[in-house]
Amino acid sequence: MRSDGRLARMLHVLVHMALLGGRETSERIAEMLNTNPVVVRRTLGALRDHGIVASEGGRGGGWRMAKSLDEITVLAVQRALDGGPILPAATSSDHPSCPVERASNAVLVAAHAEAEARLVEIYGATTLSEIARAAMETAKGQA
Amino acid sequence: MRSDGRLARMLHVLVHMALLGGRETSERIAEMLNTNPVVVRRTLGALRDHGIVASEGGRGGGWRMAKSLDEITVLAVQRALDGGPILPAATSSDHPSCPVERASNAVLVAAHAEAEARLVEIYGATTLSEIARAAMETAKGQA
DNA sequence: CATTCTGTAACACCACTTGTTACGCAATGA
DNA sequence: TCATTGCGTAACAAGTGGTGTTACAGAATG
Prior knowledge:
Chain A is 59% helix and 6% strand. Chain A is mainly alpha-helical.
């Protein structure tokens, strides 16, 4: 089905960056994400525009956290990546004046709005520090 | 963003078919949906496989409802169109053994599962007869 | 002033829905 | 019997959106 791995990737890399503490270059982050430095710049750039990370060019530059993990919610990352609805209702617009089409669309829009509200509630209540804690517990359990 | 107008289109056309009562050809349904007969056959075919509509070939053939509107939920139509998750979590799989990636994915999967549960609850509680009633009230109000 | 970074444009690729053409098969009815 | 009607399906192009990649400009450092 549909996929947009950006949110998952950003959560992943933000936690790593915070745990590592210092500055990371796009090159190194790309290795963490098993991808390309340009993709990293593109995606982290959106987070920088929302004050989650900061970037510096030139020698010794790279990316660093602009907030601590407990100040960043999953919702904030999502919003930085995409300002639109998270779960847009897929409506039809074949005959916009048709009452049946409108009623069908209205049902879908209302349902998606409720589902998105639930998702936003959870995203907004989850900080990245919780993810970091869960990860460290898992790692400890495996060690 | 993402779009998959099939569900909206099927709700639309099912209500119309029920209101019209008789048999409709792919050609006429395509006109309702402002699309192509082949697309109609493709999509209605999935509903036929789940007992929502029935099709007959040959002269005088076409499509007819196999159930009444109050026996069909939005959820049933959705399931007929796609058996998988409605709101799959977009996870990453760059480093499957990385605890941080796993923890990030787990958060997303859990959140999406809750949102989908809410969506399924609403879809399952909404029958097409409710859409038909809403559409007729709208039409009446406009007339 | 060379090096090391980010910033960004440009393009190909992949996956998926949609639109379209073409053709096969079944059922009807003269 | 046979032409007509309508579904069933394969095949292919188009549009969309994230991803991967190359190339190059700009800025900061030492």
